[in-house]
Design brief:
A hairpin with a 5-residue loop joins strand 1 and strand 2. Helix 9 packs antiparallel against helix 10. The chain is an all-alpha fold. A two-stranded antiparallel sheet has the order 1-2. Helices cover 63% and strands 1% of the residues.
């Protein structure tokens, strides 16, 4: 068979929607289980060869998220006497969001729906929380009749508003947690703990609004502890993804959950017919 004919057959096989293996970076054929480990999303048919042409962007976003999350968690727990986020406010605008937004864009380009959503929501979360650390915006001062930031930050209205915001985030993250059950146990635990942390920190702001500062501090530290667990799990899964991309022979477990669900390497039309 001629080389040109072999190339035509190879291109046809790569374009078929119902795939049992996917071409990763460098043209290596990988299984659905390894694909899910690398991209944190079930393998689905996509048009084009972007996954072959571009590097895996998922670890990049996770590095930004984990560094920001770990720092945030340690400060919430008061490690080393830390009691303010003002000194590291830049991480809410650059370390986390920049890497997460870059990852979001390239996940979208490659057609990786779920990691695109994950990186996108965490990018805007860190940005929105970072704004709270900027006195120049005068957010807390707006809740004070005299324009005093410290007085506004202790007001009922200010703390209740943030509590409601974190409560809404808790339900959003809970929704994402449900879908992580189609990926792996480590990713699911990350969302389980970050959802719990969101509800706990919401409760901490409610206690501040009620002037119960002792309970508020206890809840803040509990929320920080949950986020620190998230950071540890995040570091682990980032290492797993980087190890696979760097072709390390160590096969670290993540608790694959995809085999409990129907195959995802089908088109939406086929899925609808089989429903």
């Amino acid at each position: 068979m001629s080389n040109s004919r072999v190339e035509e057959i190879r291109e046809y096989d790569m374009e078929k929607p119902n795939l049992t293996h996917v071409q990763s970076v460098g043209g290596m054929t990988i299984s659905p289980e390894l694909f899910e480990k690398l991209y944190l999303t079930p393998k689905t048919p996509t048009a084009g060869d972007f996954r072959k042409r571009f590097a895996n962007p998922t670890p990049l976003g996770f590095v930004g998220f984990v560094i920001t999350d770990a720092t945030f968690a340690m400060i919430l727990m008061g490690w080393g006497g830390a009691n303010s986020l003002s000194g590291v406010a830049g991480m809410f605008f650059f370390t986390g969001p920049v890497l997460l937004l870059l990852s979001t864009i390239f996940e979208w380009v490659q057609g990786n729906f779920f990691p695109m959503m994950v990186c996108g929501i965490f990018a805007v979360f860190w940005l929105s929380f970072g704004v709270l650390q900027l006195p120049s915006w005068g957010l807390a001062a707006a809740y004070s009749a005299t324009g005093n930031s410290a007085e506004g930050a202790a007001s009922v209205g200010y703390n209740a508003a943030i509590a409601l915001y974190l409560l809404a985030w808790g339900f959003a993250l809970l929704t994402f947690f449900v879908f992580t059950l189609k990926t792996n146990a480590v990713f699911a635990m990350i969302f389980g703990f970050v959802t719990t942390a969101s509800f706990i920190l919401s409760a901490a702001y409610w206690r501040v609004a009620m002037a119960d500062y002792v309970m508020a501090m206890a809840l803040q530290k509990a929320g920080g502890a949950c986020l620190f667990v998230v950071a540890l799990l995040g570091w682990y899964i980032t290492f797993v993804m980087m190890a696979a991309e760097m072709r390390l022979t160590t096969n670290l477990p993540v608790g694959d959950l995809s085999h409990f669900w129907p195959a995802t390497d089908v088109t939406l039309n086929e899925m609808e017919k089989n429903a």
